[in-house]
Amino acid sequence: MKKYISIIFLLNFIVAASQETIVPLEEQYRSEGPYTNVYFKDVSGYLDPFVGTWEYSGATVYFKVNFYKLTHARGGFGLYTTIFEDELRSFILYKVLENGTWVTKYNTFTIIFIGDEEANSSSIRGNLLGVTQNEINLRYTEPTTHCRRLKTAALELELFEENGIEKLKWGRRRPKNNRLGTGFCPDGSPLDESNFIIPKDMVLTKVN
Amino acid sequence: MRAKRTVLKSFIIFVFSFLLLSCEDDLSFAGTKDNDMSVRKINLSELKHRPKAYEKMLEYMSDSSNKARKNIYNGKYEFTIDTDNIIYIEKEDYHSYTFTIYSDPGNDKGYTENLFLHLLPDGSYKAFLIQYNFDKEDLMQMKKGNAMPDLNVKTVFYPLPDFDSDSVLQARGCLQSMSVSCTYQVTVDKVPIPVEEGDNVGCDEPECLYDYIYSYTLVGCNYSSTSCGGMEATGSIHDMFSGGSGGGGNGGGGNGGVRNGPIIGISVSNDSGHIRELNKISNRVPGVPNPLRERIDVLASEVGTALQEKGMEVRRGPNGTYVHVLPFQSGFDYVSFGPPSITTVLYLHIHHNGTIQEEGQDVGIEPVPSDGDFFGFARAYDFLSEMDAPDKDNFTSIIISRNGLYAMRVEDPQKVIDLSVNIPNDKKMQEALGGKFEENVTEKGRIEAKKLCNGCSPTALKALTDIEVEKAFIDHIKYFNKDFGSGIKVFKGVLDSGSGNYIWTKIID
Questions:
Q1: Closest CA in chain A for residue B380
Q2: Which of B361, B379, B439 sits opposite A128 (nearest CB)?
Q3: How many CB atoms lie under 10 A from the CB of residue B191?
Q4: Per-domain boundaries in chain B
Q5: How many domains does one find in chain A?
């Protein structure tokens, strides 16, 4: 009997030792820690109102984004982290009318991600809560295959209602070309500093 | 005879102890030739299970409320005992504990100190304060594993008869000091790295990996002590460990043949060491020109007006001079230095106040180091390490902005090199690090400032944003360093209008 009790105590100890600390999302990344084995959890459901499919349809532009909430996602600093977060991720469809034909510029709905691959490939992601509960700040990384193009921007999103319809104000802000290491690709080509492809300002409507 | 052997054994361990901890907090050692000797690190938790030693250490504290803390701080005398890295050395029936002592920033004494607890035959401990007067060249030589033939000359022992704060102060003053003069034979042994450590499996010469074990063979020691009353004493090491205060010993307790050999990793990486080096870069001594400070001033004068980043790489020239090289590429929000030279000691660059319009939006530069600055620092250090540059561990990168100066220094060389190696080859990591930086620093700082501003003026909002971005930067890098590990320490320098010098404080471990 003593043996079983000891084992139970031991198991309890192991479980307790390996448990992560849950911190509310609004308190994430504060300098007092905890710094490792931490889960920034959306305990108050701040992310939920943004979840769903939103659409913008203009004369020459069509844009659709689906936000979903990923819980206990690997956050922090890449694959080696012990930090986890709840955050919004996305799929994007973006089409432009060119010479009378709708041309698809982006379609990440068709990309199948596996495991951590997704964590680093989702073009819109994040969980930075805004000044009010209707605002959120996400990070946009424009998909590219160019070795030196790592173009990012902040996405400022704000929920509001118009005639009983849910709307989402979309603003792409503070564009940035990240430069890492030397300024040239291995083949000698310089940085790709061309403009972003997706629109800067839109008002999206919730479709489901 | 047995007593004499025990005394000699004790002293060997004693010597071994101070060799180990003379290296501050960055020590490493591969082992010892003396198979009977056990050397390992313990922490405060483990020490608490050894009540006599623990209680002895606690006597060192003036504030009993601090007893639960790690890295115990003595506020009265402004130093901290490092209780995370206690060196415990054991051989047969003898053991000792050695602690590093850190001085507070701004109270740097210019030398390294250890606290040493030496086991007496009755099971109690005798305490010593050991002072090492190493200069930078000594530390570099020890880091390279080179022997220090004049080690004994630079070492002073302060026996502490009653080990409390007052006695420490008295000992430091003049009540009692002791210098020990020992003679060693130093040999170097080439030892294959054990197979289980990796790359050595099945290797052939010359590809095998080897460690070089530096062995110090003690030949003999004498000591002399002086007290405030003017009494002088000389003797052999036996008298010192017997608790006697000297008096006509015969000297020369030889014990050749017993070997102990630490490989010592030396770093000047305690905070006061970093700040001392930063002061040399940024501050003036009246009447003495400081060419590095002059360069900082030139760049600082352009922070408010420049519309692109500017910087310079500073290299050590002959006879205490410096030369600088301009970056090979720069633009609105970046500066790219070429590969450093073997004499490179410092990177300087500004984060200016200007903004540009991109797609009709104002885009500016944050007044704190960027993620790219961390990568650039790591890359430069990697180059310097490959060249085995003499100043590599003293390499500094300073970012000059409207917030003041931010300096990066090497804390953990291997982690810095790992960062340099991994980042360029791992796009996922680039995204995670770069993107997370923008989210956690730039955006979070802005949001927090807006919350605090609550309708304040644009000028007030800008000032608040600078403050909040710095807070967010510190938060972010702390997580980055603790979760991922950059091996880089960050300091901030604020210009003191009175002295005209920068006051440096550590902001990130």
A1: A181
A2: B439
A3: 15
A4: 2-260, 271-508
A5: 1
